[in-house]
Structure formats: structure tokens, C-alpha cells
Amino acid sequence: xxxxxxxxxxxxxxxxxxxxxxxxxxxxxxxxxxxxxxxxxxxxxxxxxxxxxxxxxxxxxxxxxxxxxxxxxxxxxxxxxxxxxxxxxxxxxxxxxxxxxxxxxxxxxxxxxxxxxxxxxxxxxxxxxxxxxxxxxxxxxxxxxxxxxxxxxxxxxxxxxxxxxxxxxxxxxxxxxxxxxxxxxxxxxxxxxxxxxxxxxxxxxxxxxxxxxxxxxxxxxxxxxxxxxxxxxxxxxxxxxxxxxxxxxxxxxxxxxxxxxxxxxxxxxxxxxxxxxxxxxxxxxxxxxxxxxxxxxxxxxxxxxxxxxxxxxxxxxxxxxxxxxxxxxxxxxxxxxxxxxxxxxxxxxxxxxxxxxxxxxxxxxxxxxxxxxxxxxxxxxxxxxxxxxxxxxxxxxxxxxxxxxxxxxxxxxxxxxxxxxxxxxxxxxxxxxxxxxxxxxxxxxxxxxxxxxxxxxxxxxxxxxxxxxxxxxxxxxxxxxxxxxxxxxxxxxxxxxxxxxxxxxxxxxxxxxxxxxxxxxxxxxxxxxxxxxxxxxxxxxxxxxxxxxxxxxxxxxxxxxxxxxxxxxxxxxxxxxxxxxxxxxxxxxxxxxxxxxxxxxxxxxxxxxxxxxxxxxxxxxxxxxxxxxxxxxxxxxxxxxxxxxxxxxxxxxxxxxxxxxxxxxxxxxxxxxxxxxxxxxxxxxxxxxxxxxxxxxxxxxxxxxxxx
Length: 708
Description:
By secondary structure, the chain is of the alpha+beta class. The chain has 25 helices and 25 strands. The longest helix is centred in the N-terminal third of the chain and has 26 residues, at about 20-45. The protein is elongated, with a radius of gyration of 34 Å.
């Protein structure tokens, strides 16, 4: 202590003589003495209560530092195990000591702590040298924090801190903070090996561009692993650590090169434990920075994920689904999960191709989303969520970040809702072969508040009695309003909810598809209370994914399951993580589901509303299907399913002036009138559905629909 005090005394005069600025540096003199005293304090004063409490707290922090449970990137994989997205606050790639090249060890110790392998956590020689240099120069020219101390600081700032206040406190320029870092550094040196400390430091330190740790930095700047870093690459990374913003090699390459070359020179100095030759140093200094452009860091959102134009809708649904299951955004971005999803990349590509071929992505104000769900008794796995639109934020490029595949669209699906009236009838004992009347016009007083309502059939639909099966294929309005009177509106609405329209009927939405939060009533209850007989004609806003899942429920013998995007999740240690999903439930008897399947079996056949599109696509498999079109041709839908796969397509106007849609042969559809058009479920939706589902079924055996 006497020599230290002597040094401190000798610099006081210099500090005072140089003025107020240097008085700040005097704090460093005091700090050095305080550090030594504090490190000796427990031994000096014994095991008093305060010392025990402080030592315990420091021990807990030391244990946390030793385990280094850092925030980690969550990786999202498709069903084949290929990555489709990453979620993170800070991009990190965990790296063990044996994965770090010696060039990186050489570079970082040469520039940040040349006595790293010799000191015990605090470099007193370096501290006094830096103190003298800074006082003589009149400014802070040199630091003295060891790599161990820097590890402590970076861990407290970038890992342990939960908010801005804690991060600020963890890097505040105070004697208390320096004291804590020094004590923790000395403690770590007693419990951790030098290699472990160095690798831990290299895993937590920031390298700029939202990148933390050498594993992530090697990938971000050079597209390689940290074990492949050559001299100039390692030196550049070590250089960036000093000031990640100011030394950004993309925005400030000259400063980054100058600092990199300084690091290379230090690497060749004799005292470096991983010394390089002067010849190697000179060659390395002549090399370009070699930084990737664009950087190799994976995007951290569904909008900018690789292939997001195709799989971004699925990624968005996955994130929303996990949020509802209890995974917060922070947990997803820091938890280091590996999420195996149900997304089938081939099904996704084929569906995307079909959607765009019918409605080009840059089409004015017309969207064409499609959802594909695999039926099952234990789960309904979402295989594809696509649209003609790309997933993104640039509308001028045909992009949208609104998930039009899963959210409730503010348009109906037309005659598709006749499925629910038919299902209610079959549940009550009707057969697909039972006859219903189909007049050209039908007047009822049972809906609304008893007022008269007259309904007509669409153009081309002939009158005359027919079986329920034929009625589902030809879609007469009058026959289904007549049937709705007999099965009951409430029963039809309940059937829609049971089969899968859970979100679509649970809330009210406005013309933009947004929830009307001021409404204290569900859509289902509103339909029942106001006696909306038009429910069977499909005027209710609906979700494309839920329509697909309705067909999956029918194909699953009446077993409803939530449409899940998750196959499995493991945590950072590889342990399985449970997802809090709704349980599957038998919502209708298998007999009802089988009867409905048979009732829907003729839409793709001659006389059915989608026959022309099915024939053009060469469709040959048994299929249950139904088309629908809304009154002013602003939306049209086709839903369909085999025993192996279910799907739904909805073509609709998604921008002003929100007119009806016209179809002219193979040309792209367009908005044409505020009261008319000629879009039908058997045109654009069917022409999208059949080619996509043909590809999805390639290699699958032909299966028959269940008998009734």
C-alpha cells in the first residue's frame, strides 16, 4: 500500500496544476487505492454481517457470470429442418473455446489486454501506466480494463440488465462500478480458466450491427465460422470491439482499416502468446477489409426473413400463435429456441405459384390468398399460407404485412356457408340424398324481425327440386333459405363455430378487417339476435385459414383441432418445450361428417360449379368442395379437401375503389364495377386451388371419401 500511496501523492500536484479537466483523472488515482483496499477488505475485517451479505451477492453474480446464460437467437425451421426465420434482439451464435481460431485469440488479447495470460483479473501495472499516460497528456488516451473486467462489464450491460436504467447503471463512470467489476474479475480468475474467460468474453462483447459475440460476428461480416478467421479478419473484429459504431467497416472503412492494421502490428509483437510473424503481418495489412455486402447476419423478423415473400405469412402466423400460447416476444427473441414448424416448402411453393399465376402480385387492389391444412385425429397441421401478394412492407412491389391468409377478411365467402346449413340438417337426420325444393324465388318471414324477405337464385341456376347433394353442387339460394328455416338459424351458426370458424365468429370486424373493440357482442351472437337469414348466403367476414380448417375438420371425421404451425420446440439445451394449444375435440359425430363429405362430393364433377377448373387442371381424385361468391362480386371462394389435405382460396378486392371483380378468360382479373362483375368461386379461386392441390398430392395414394 505504501508504494501505491506514494504514486497517488506524486500525481496530485500534476492533476491540480493542469486544471479542472484533469481533476477528473485524479479520481483514477483514488480508485486504484480503493480497489486494492476493497479487494483486501474481507480478509482484513473478518466475517461481519455486512461483509457476508456483500460476499454472498458477489458470489451469486460470479456464479451467473461463470454460467453465462446469454440471450440467444431463436431459429425457425420448416418441416424438412431448413431455416425459414430467426427471432432475436441481438444476433448471437454460441461459440465454444475450441471453435475460436488462434488468430482471434491473438488479435483480441494483443489489442485489448496484452498481459491477459499473466494477471489475476486486474492488471495493476497497466492501470498505473494508463494513469500516468492520461495525466501527462491531459486527456484519457489509454484504458486499463482487462479482458476479465470487460467481460464483467459487458455481461452486466448486455445480459444481466433488464431495462435502460440497469444498463445505464452497469456502465456508469463511477468508482462503485469499477470496484464491483474489479472484485468480480478477481473472483472469476479464481474459479474459471483463462480459456473459459476469454471465450465467455468473446461470446458477449458487441461487434456492431446488432451482432454480439465472435460466432455471430464471423457470420455477419465474413459469412464463415469463428474457427475459420484469418489474420486480417480476426484483426478487424478485434478492432471493431473498441468502438463498434465509429469503426463500422461499412460506414467508416478508412477508420476500420487503420485500427485493424494497428491490431495486426500488435499481433506481431514479441509479448503476444499467439504471435504472428512480421511477414504475415505485412501481408495481412495489404488485404482489403473483405466485409460482406449485404452483411451475412440473418434478418430478425418475418418481413425480412430469407424467402419471406413466400413464407412470411406462415412466419407471421407462427409468431402470433406462439404469443397466444404464452410465449412473449421477448422470450422468443432471447430464449434460443429451435422451433420445428409444420410448413411444407414444396406445398408452399406450388400454392404461391398458383396464386400468382391467377392474380399477379402487382394487380391493382385484388388479393388471392390460400391456406392448406392437413387433416388428422390428433392435430391439424398448417402446411402452407401464401398469397399472390408477397409478405413485406412495400405496397408498390405488391407486398403486404397484413396476414391476409389468417386474419378475418372483411368480405364473405358466399355460398360456402351453405355447408353449415347442410351440416345442421344432416346432424338432425337428413341424408345427402333427401330432396329440397328450389323455386326461382322464395319469400320468408322467419328472419330479421318478421319482415318479408324474398331471395332469388344466381344467374344460370335453374329451379326444380333436387337432392341436398345436387343442391350443394349447384348452389341454389332459394333451396338453402328454405332449408335454413327448417334446421334453425342458431343451429347453423353453432355448426359454423364447431367446424372451425372460431375467430371469424368470435368478434366483430370493420370494413378494414380490424376488430371493433367497442362492440360488446360476438359476430355469432349478433347474427342470432338480429335473425340474419343471409348467414347461409355467406355475407359474414371470414378467415381463409379457418375456412381451410373447416374442411380439415370434415375430413377428420368431425374432429376439430386448432390449425397448428408447430411440430415441436426445444430450448437452448435441446430439451422439449410444451406448447399450450387447445385440445382437439369431436365437434360432430362421424356420421354427420361423412354425410357432409358425400354431400360435397360433386362440385368438381360435370354440372358442379368448379368442374371447368378441375377438368382444366386434370383433377382426378375424389374431393369434397364448395364454391361461393358474394353479391357484388367483391369476393369469391373455393374450399375443398381430400382425406389427406384441405385447402381454401379467397379472391377479393383489397383496395379502393372496392369494386366488383371482372374475369376475362386467362387475362388478369380487374375491378370493373361497384355493383357488378363476373368473379365466381369456380373461376379464379378454383383455378388457383386445383393446380396447387395437384402438386401437393403428388406421391400420395388416391383415397376415397368416407361412405355415409
